């Protein structure tokens, strides 16, 4: 079981490395394929559509084949499509970047649900919280990947060869983890998915995802992850810009604020499992969300409260913001994976989270254009308060209800 756990941890980390190493070189990709910012946004949206499409079908694939083949093939599709997108950029082929972007989004979507189902199953078998640390591996991977991509740009290493250098590492990961990741996890004949495998009544319940989502406990979980993931996604798009516009920070100092946020998220995820084991998921998430509210409020009032020292407080507040949202995704998915139909429940809740993460921040930008970014941050604070209230849905008694 320990080898299984380590294998899933490596998958989480590699996804972070590969994705971040590509993301930090998107400005170069934009130049190579000669598109406008709006056109690049559309290309990235195609990838998001791929991920959301994957979430729709991932539960059915897992229920039929189990998590192992879905994880492995989704992972392989992601890596190869990412490499193909990089080569398309090198050949100045914008349409190719968009097409392969869809497939890399699809690959990471199905694989992500599979690895989270495995993580939830490991938690249940080991009887302790593991999901925060698995997601910490992803966050650590993004830091490594960002460094790798930045180093590649500094050394003038082309984007296509930088990305293709990851392919043999991905192959090694697949080869050496193959015997440690068990087959059958998540399949319908897995006892963790139904109280009576083969029971017709249970099968009928599984056929209607809409009704499943609107069961009281799962709906609360889905709404909670939507609210708090919206806040996480907004930090990626609008935190650094708000520091430039409202704190008169240089791009480098604004980027440092975002680094504080990501670093705080990584540390919180790494140690968060210990807190969950001590206090329970609902208490940890409630307190973390309120810490995030404090961070956002400090950023809103920083220029008025702290004068010339405001930027330093904004960096600290950014760390509080990161701590506030860090545990949401792993804890809500962990809760969704308990009980019957775990693959479908995880897929539905993940869909709520990814929809908020991908679609919400651009819409918030329209609001920020009207009332200002700091004014828009009040909406984010409200979302964290809502998530704090909905944390009660993570109580074991609520999950059984």
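Q: What amino acid sequence fits the structure above?
A:
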């Amino acid at each position: 079981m320990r080898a299984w756990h380590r294998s899933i941890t490596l998958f989480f980390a590699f996804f972070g490395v590969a994705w971040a190493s590509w993301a930090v070189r998107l400005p170069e990709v934009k130049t190579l394929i000669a598109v406008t910012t709006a056109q690049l946004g559309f290309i990235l949206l195609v990838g998001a559509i791929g991920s959301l499409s994957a979430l729709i079908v991932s539960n059915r694939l897992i229920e039929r084949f189990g998590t192992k083949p879905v994880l492995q093939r989704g992972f392989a599709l992601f890596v190869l499509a990412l490499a193909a997108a990089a080569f398309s950029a090198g050949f100045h082929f914008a349409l190719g970047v968009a097409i392969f972007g869809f497939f890399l989004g699809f690959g990471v979507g199905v694989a992500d649900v599979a690895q989270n189902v495995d993580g939830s199953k490991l938690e249940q078998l080991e009887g302790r919280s593991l999901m925060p640390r698995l997601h910490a591996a992803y966050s650590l991977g993004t830091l490594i990947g960002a460094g790798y991509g930045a180093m590649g740009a500094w050394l003038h290493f082309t984007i296509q060869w930088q990305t293709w250098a990851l392919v043999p590492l991905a192959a090694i990961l697949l080869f050496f983890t193959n015997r440690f990741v068990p087959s059958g996890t998540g399949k319908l004949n897995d006892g963790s998915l139904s109280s009576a495998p083969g029971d017709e009544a249970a099968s009928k319940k599984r056929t209607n995802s809409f009704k499943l989502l609107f069961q009281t406990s799962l709906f609360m979980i889905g709404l909670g992850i939507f609210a708090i993931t919206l806040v996480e996604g907004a930090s990626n798009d609008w935190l650094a810009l708000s520091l430039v516009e409202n704190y008169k920070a240089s791009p480098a100092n604004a980027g440092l604020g975002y680094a504080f946020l990501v670093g705080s998220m990584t540390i919180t995820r790494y140690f968060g499992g210990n807190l969950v084991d001590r206090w329970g998921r609902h208490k940890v998430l409630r307190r973390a969300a309120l810490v995030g509210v404090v961070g956002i409020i400090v950023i809103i009032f920083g220029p008025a409260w702290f004068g010339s020292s405001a930027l330093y407080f904004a960096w600290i507040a950014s760390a509080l913001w990161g701590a506030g949202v860090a545990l949401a995704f792993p804890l809500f998915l962990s809760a969704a994976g308990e009980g019957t139909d775990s693959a479908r429940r995880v897929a539905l809740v993940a869909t709520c989270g990814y929809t908020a993460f991908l679609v919400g921040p651009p819409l918030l930008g329209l609001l920020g254009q009207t009332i200002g970014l700091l004014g828009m941050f009040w909406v984010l604070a409200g979302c964290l308060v809502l998530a704090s209230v909905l944390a009660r849905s993570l109580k074991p008694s609520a999950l059984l209800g």
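Q: And what stands out in the fold?
A: Confidence is low (pLDDT under 50) at residues 190-207.
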